Give the backbone structure.
Amino acid sequence: MRPFLALLASLVFSTAFAGTTIDLSAEASLPAANDLLKAVVYSEAHGSAPAEIARRDNQENAEALRLIRNKPSVTVKTGNQLTYPFYGNNRRIDSWRMHSELLLESKDIATLSELLGRLQQMKLALGNVSQSPSSSTRLEIEEAATREAIKAFERRAGVIAQTMGKPYRIKQLNIQQAGSFPPVMPMRAARAMLTADAAPAPIEAGESMLTVSISGQNELTD
């Protein structure tokens, strides 16, 4: 029992002589270039025979993939592939529709913009477009914002300590990152962007705001 009593006495002693604690928060926001563009294009086929619509849909996707793969700066992967029936008045299957997506991604916004126009000319529809900072850009800006947020936290802590006429030490820090990104462009607006002559999609990358928030607890010491 003696070691336990000694530990308990130590904890009581530390608590009794602890300084005043102050909860603080600070944040910093920095712009990050939306240098990564993502887009979804899709093809649809409709008919009475599932095998036939699958053949036509696969042919359209194969032609699209050949075009996309000629652009080394653009990556592509398959997305959702759905086949679903349409029912007639007699509640029997009247026809079938197949929906296939391709997911495109690139930091070369000009090339992807032009490519989206050419894909629409091939009768593929544009589902949506989203823009965001790439992983490397996001990491760089988050690190810079973290440094600025820490400086802001220290300045605030220093002002309080100076006003109170006591030194301080940081007891705890909690760091959180958040971002504000442009909304995803909806399907109807995206289709209207492109014309039949395969004009490049008018995409402006813009910037996103990345915010780092810091909350913590300081202790004023004697």
Observations:
- The longest helix spans residues 135-164.
- Residues 36-133+185-196 form a domain with the Alpha-Beta Plaits fold (CATH 3.30.70.360).
- The mean pLDDT is 82.
